[in-house]
Design goal:
By secondary structure, the protein is α/β, with parallel strands linked by helices. Helices cover about 45% and strands about 20% of the residues.
Length: about 130
Amino acid sequence: MTSSILVIDDDAGIRLLCRMNLERGDVVVTEAASGAEGLEAARSDVPALIVLDLMMAHMDGVEVLRRLKEDPVTAGIPVMILTAKASGYERDRCATLGAAAFMTKPFSVDKLAETAEALLREHSPAARP
């Protein structure tokens, strides 16, 4: 079964790097360049996982995460935060809002792929009782 990952980041280079390292086998990566575009994409084609940047113009990733978790359509999607904001405060705030994982930039592409694979396995329908 094909899994989809939505990458929401305003940096085209980061989106490409994520796509190159996450799109393997039965995983398809889609991209959104803004928070609003990401929310729309998440609702219209519910992905198995979202990779979300925190620092974006107009609507930051914290607001995107809050809206994702408040929406019944997207609330169950695991969200991996990928950000340059490495403070404990940001980690705690994202965890409180429901983020499933937190990675800081610069990041290891191997760790990105490992974390994404683990989240996809953990949250797959087959993993649920």
